[in-house]
Write a structure and sequence with these properties.
Layout lengths: L1 H28 L6 H52 L1
């Protein structure tokens, strides 16, 4: 009885999966074509997102450079303090 149940569940799962695929295919086929305004709006949004990503990259680079400069200054300060201790 266990094996039969397993087989029936597998067949049911397979039928459900194929029905879901068919439904998804129908939805994508029935999608209305986009108007020119929708296409322009999508392009504008993509350009805006690209500009924002570029700005974020520039901000991140500036932040890295600033942190690197801070780290170098801290190292120089520590080195200077060690030299003072050894010199005294």
């Amino acid at each position: 009885m266990g094996l039969l149940r397993f087989i029936v569940q597998g067949i049911g799962w397979e039928l459900g999966r194929s029905a879901a695929r068919e439904g998804i295919e129908r939805l994508t086929e029935d999608e209305p074509p986009k108007t020119e305004a929708e296409i322009r709006a999508a392009e504008k949004a993509a350009k805006r997102a690209a500009r924002e990503a570029e700005r974020a990259a520039k901000r991140a680079e500036k932040a890295r450079a600033k942190q690197k400069k801070r780290d170098a200054k801290q190292i120089e300060d520590e080195l200077r303090a060690l030299k003072r201790r050894l010199g005294e």
